[in-house]
# Entry
Amino acid sequence: MISSVLFIILSLVIIVTAMLSLYFRDLLASIVSYAVMSLVLTVVYFHLDAPDVAIAEAAIGAALTISIFVLTIKLTRRREE
Amino acid sequence: MSDFFLYVTVVLLIFFGLSAVLFKRNLIKIVIALNILEAGVNLFFISIAYRPEGTAPIFTLAPELEKLRMVLPTPQALILTNIVIGFATTALMLVFAVFTYRNNGTLDIRNLKGVEDHD
Amino acid sequence: MKLASFLSLVLITGFLFVSINKLHPVGSPMGNPDALKDRGTAVTDIKNVSTMDDYYLRNSQTETGSNNVVASIVFDYRGFDTLGEATVLFLVVTSISMLLSLLYKREDVDDYEFRKPNEFPGDVSRIISYGSYLLYPLIITFGVYLVIHGHLSPGGGFQGGAVMASGTALLLVSALITRHVHRTRRIFSFFESLGLTIFISMGFAGIGTTFLYNFLAQGSASLFGRAIPFGPNPGYLNSGGMLPVLSFAIGVEVFFGLSIILVSLFHVARHRKDPE
# Structure
């Protein structure tokens, strides 16, 4: 009972942050929202008894992907359109 | 219904990612949407391998043999390499976005022209 | 045009919603949940084993000698897929490095040296400079720990390599860089190729039976050949056969490959003005 309530709350946070990251016009804000989604996804992977996948998602989705995106935004524009 | 909630999350993530690929105009937004699509597919694989009374598939300091039930290990092994490949693909797409901006001055996909010929 | 794509999107999502009713509910996949209980002492036991995952859960510890079932699937039972993945990563790193070298200019030379925390330029805050100076060795140690203990605890080559590459990202963000940072590319690409070469050579070393055969598994008199009985145990480092060697090779390749991507992109981005 507790675990399914936990899964429902975390899944709602994932969906909301994914929607927000596609809604913002400032690209830096959408990248930060994507990083929050990746972090909550790591917690969901841990509660689904997959520690290997959780470590990989934490290191790659939350640390490396956003540094690549920030470097790209520095080379192009920051605001959409 | 609460049994299927993880699957509903997967379908919603795929829907948002696919709709942003079809309807957004900025190239970097499209790359972010492809990443969200990939996160949805990874979550699907991990959630079909779950047993509520099970533990992680590791024998070091595991509970004793009478109470030992494990989740399925094969989808986790497939998703492990998929995450690293997803990062490499994203990096290559972003390098193409940098070159597109240098050649066209904009990242709007409606206003792109071809690359000049360098002889 | 937009109407057609919207209708196809609704159709695809409708199909997905219909098909999740046909799946099993979350929490009861196929297979025998009591596959680990009544097991003999043979090396391979296939009594009452009906699916592939039951076979892996029951027999991977005694056949390969490692405690981590996921790592034994990635490096031993499905090692060929890992070779394909390492090749894809190598290809992507090569093409990114080749494309971004078109944007370098000869006169963009970094003139910083490796700094102590009290010599940083004025625009880097104290918290970032001191914190990164203290945090970087811990990150590298944690990554090396994950790579070496891949067959005992959650970890392995991919996770350890990714954690060490995030240490490189910390180095670039906090201005702890060395002189001529673009020249590190040559050393990094040598070590990345070395990692992939070690993986392929270990695959060919057991070619008497098959490619990527675990010839150092338990029973053989080698460094990683300790015999592991079935069941929970505290974990012994000299077990696992070929798994620690392959894990080390993949960790080296992933770390240096991802670092090449970060350093190349950073060097191009360094000499541009900030966007509006």
Remarks:
- The longest helix of chain B spans residues 74-104.
- Chain B has a mean pLDDT of 88.
- The radius of gyration of chain B is 21 Å.
- The helical segments of chain B are 5-23, 27-47, 74-104.
